[in-house]
Write a structure and sequence with these properties.
20 strands, Arc Repressor Mutant, subunit A, Rossmann fold, 4-stranded parallel sheet, 12-stranded parallel sheet
């Protein structure tokens, strides 16, 4: 053959796999991945057109095997494998797609239609999931054959139903089959929903959050977010056991069909009026609701994670009717008309690039657990002391316009703070703060005169180039094990550093005007836990 050989596997839509990488990150990320893995070096691609040119020019003499999975748009093939001359002689290009029509314009050499499992394969898979062995018990055999008829040879349906029926009695199997008999037309989606309907209410909510908002996201981060409401530790394990989600490389994943089922469940809550649904994730629906102030107290969560800045002509009072909104995650939204209201029910407020100088004046978020306004234009958070006793995390990274932290006297449960500000004296009295990260706060000048933070484990002041004096360590500071003062303007260390009996790592590198490192007032023999010292 003169160049690459093309093979294509056509599979019906019920066999669709994961296509979220292309949808969420775009073709550029896939082009970078293709080039980087083959050339074994990091490749950056400016846009998808430049990426296509790079693939053609840099791979045209290499013999490669490329598998492009779950293609559902023709431009995906155009930009990843435009024609066989893009790859060297003897290359093999394998494509899987739910739409055979996409292949006709690409001159493929051969196609193969993937079929469902045979009865023998199907009953073995069902048995492995339902009974943890290769063949079902005799008294379940007829029931298994009934299930096979509904699953239509689809592995996903067999896995989900088998996992759902694991450990259940024959009466429960018969009840499940009866429900399958009563579904509208026994579409696969209806078959899959049997497993969803059998979940506890909290587990249903966790599943819908993942399907609508957090598929592909980091497990630990989603656990942290959902822990504000749903205690997801056991819930995620239940969903894995039921084969409704998988966890790979600590990412929460689910089959496209299961995600579509979750999306459809939420859409059915109000087919014509998205403002009456529990979750909003589709930008057009969010714009429609907030532009016309059509939101209701049914909305619990909104996630709008845009790749590029967009101007949103939302009503300033657009959030006024969203009294039950608890999760709000927005990125890259400009608000020329301002914002006069946010829900006081919010538990998570994450607005990257928040465009305004302040939060709404009447915003009193007593339920708030995390406030994340990184890369924002915020100048101040609130005035005076506020009793936000549930607030654990404040993140203001790269918010260059903020001048000073607010009074944190009433935020005694704060566990994490990463800011770019002059610190209020009250920060030094936060008893539950574990991490205080002020790295790269180049405008920071003033710190509390002393800190008495009995839970603090890590204090990072790296590259705070205007900080000349660090606080005295008072009270019980026995948990502080890591202290990073590198690249600061400190002139001397406080005598009270000797109180830090658990200090294991001290970084003083590039402290160019530090003159009292060996001052006799500092009793270094007290630092019995010190392992790492960088001067």
């Amino acid at each position: 053959m003169s160049a690459a050989w093309w093979g294509a596997f056509y599979r019906d839509p019920w066999h669709a796999g994961h296509r979220e990488k292309s949808e969420k990150d775009g073709l550029v990320s896939l082009q970078e991945k293709l080039l980087s893995r083959i050339l074994m070096t990091k490749i950056d691609v400016e846009d998808e057109y430049a990426g296509a040119t790079m693939i053609e020019k840099r791979l045209c003499k290499l013999k490669v095997l490329v598998v492009i999975d779950d293609v559902d748009r023709s431009n995906q093939l155009d930009k990843l494998a435009g024609n066989r001359d893009w790859f060297g002689r003897g290359s093999r290009i394998i494509v899987t797609t739910p739409d055979i029509h996409l292949l006709r314009g690409h001159d493929v050499d051969a196609t193969y239609k993937a079929t469902g499992l045979t009865d023998g394969e199907a009953i073995q898979l069902l048995s492995l999931k339902a009974f943890k062995k290769s063949f079902p018990p005799e008294d379940y055999l007829d029931l298994c054959h009934h299930i096979l008829g509904y699953a239509q040879g689809l592995p996903l349906a067999l896995v989900v139903l088998g996992s759902f029926l694991f450990g259940r009695s024959t009466n429960e199997w018969e009840s499940t089959i009866e429900r399958l008999n009563n579904t509208s037309n026994r579409q696969v989606m209806d078959v899959l929903q049997i497993s969803f309907d059998g979940l506890e209410e909290k587990d249903k909510q966790i599943f819908l959050h993942i399907a609508c908002l957090y598929k592909g996201k980091d497990r630990d981060r989603v656990t942290q977010i959902l822990d504000y409401q749903l205690n997801p530790g056991i819930g995620l394990s239940v969903l894995v056991d039921k084969s409704l989600i998988t966890i790979f490389n600590n990412k929460l994943l689910m089959h496209d069909l299961l995600q579509e089922m979750g999306l459809e469940i939420v859409r059915r809550q109000s087919p014509e009026k998205p403002g009456k649904r529990s979750r909003l994730w589709f930008p057009e629906d969010i714009h429609k609701v907030l532009k016309k102030n059509k939101g209701t107290d049914k909305i619990q969560a909104i996630v709008m994670d845009l790749p590029e800045l967009e101007v949103a002509h939302w009503k300033p009072e657009a959030f006024s009717n969203l009294s039950e909104l608890s999760l709000l995650h927005i990125r890259n939204v400009e608000l020329p008309e301002g914002l006069t209201f946010l829900s006081n029910s919010l538990r998570l407020l994450e607005w990257s690039g928040y465009p305004l100088r302040s939060l709404p004046q009447n915003f009193e978020p007593h339920e708030l657990v995390e406030l994340n306004l990184c890369h924002s234009n915020i100048e101040h958070l609130w005035k005076g002391a506020k009793n936000y006793d549930k607030l654990k995390f404040i993140k203001l990274c790269h918010s260059q316009k903020i001048v000073q932290t607010p009074d944190l006297t009433g935020v005694q449960n704060l566990e994490g703070c990463k800011t770019l500000v002059i610190l209020h004296q009250s920060v030094g009295q936060l008893k539950r703060l574990i991490l205080l990260n002020l790295k790269d706060c180049e405008s920071l000048e003033s710190l509390p005169s002393k800190i008495e933070m009995e839970s603090l484990e890590t204090l990072i002041l790296s590259n705070c180039s205007k900080v000349k004096k660090i606080p005295e360590f008072a009270g019980n500071m026995e948990h502080l094990s890591k202290l990073y003062l590198n690249e600061t303007a400190i002139e001397k260390l406080p005598v009270s550093i000797g109180r830090l009996s658990s200090l294991a790592s001290l970084n003083l590198s590039n402290c160019k005007i530090l003159f009292a490192f060996q001052a006799p007032l500092v009793d270094w023999s007290l630092l019995k836990s010190l392992i790492f010292l960088d001067v």
